[in-house]
Amino acid sequence: MFSSIVLRRKFNKAREFREFGVYDEALRIYNELIEKGYDLLNTYFNIGVVFSDKKRF
């Protein structure tokens, strides 16, 4: 339960970084979440959004 809350906070923080254009930090957090197996569908989706925002397809 505790780790789920921590991972959710990291996910939200990565989304904030993405929204403010701090793409490298967002990607770092998303990659960390993937390693831990957290909400893979949404995490991979958001990685795609980051690359789309960076115009690096």
In short:
With about 55 residues, the protein is mainly alpha-helical. It contains three helices and no strands.
Fold topology:
Layout lengths: L1 H18 L3 H13 L4 H14 L4
Helix pairs in contact: 1-2, 2-3
Class inferred from helices and paired strands:
mainly alpha
Low-confidence stretches are none
The DSSP helix count reads 3
Morphology call: globular
What level of helicity do the residues show? over 70%
User: What is the end-to-end distance?
Assistant: 36 Å
Structural commentary:
The protein is mostly helical. The protein contains 3 helices and no strands. The chain has helices at residues 2-19, 23-35, 40-53. Helix 1 (2-19) runs antiparallel to helix 2 and helix 2 (23-35) runs antiparallel to helix 3 (40-53). It starts with a helix and ends with a helix.
